[in-house]
Amino acid sequence: MSIFQMFGKKTDINEGVKRSQETPGAVLLDVRTAAEYAGGHIPGSVNLPLDRLNEIRIEKKVPLFVYCQSGMRSRAACAQLREMGYEAENIGGIAEYRGRLE
C-alpha cells in the first residue's frame, strides 16, 4: 500500500475509471445510495451503498476502484474494505467525472 492510500489520497476519478477498465477483472464500485445511482452512474459500475458494504460478495483478490459523489464516502468505504481484506482504491467523486453517465 502506498503512502497516498494510507492517508486517503484519492486518484482523479477520470484516470481511475480508465485504470479500472484497463485492469483485468477489476470492479468499479459506486458506494452512493441506490437512488443516487439510479439518477446517473458511470457505465459498468456496480452499486453497493456504503451502509451495506458488509454484504459484499466479490472475491477478495478482485481489485476495486471505489467512487461516490464527492470522495468522502468512497474514502470511508476503502478503509472499511481494506480492513475486510480487499484491495480498494478511492478514485473520488462522480461530481468531477467528465464522461457519459447511464
UniProtKB/TrEMBL annotation:
<protein>
    <submittedName>
        <fullName>Rhodanese-like domain-containing protein</fullName>
    </submittedName>
</protein>
<dbReference type="InterPro" id="IPR050229">
    <property type="entry name" value="GlpE_sulfurtransferase"/>
</dbReference>
<feature type="domain" description="Rhodanese">
    <location>
        <begin position="22"/>
        <end position="102"/>
    </location>
</feature>
<dbReference type="InterPro" id="IPR036873">
    <property type="entry name" value="Rhodanese-like_dom_sf"/>
</dbReference>
<dbReference type="InterPro" id="IPR001763">
    <property type="entry name" value="Rhodanese-like_dom"/>
</dbReference>
<dbReference type="Pfam" id="PF00581">
    <property type="entry name" value="Rhodanese"/>
</dbReference>
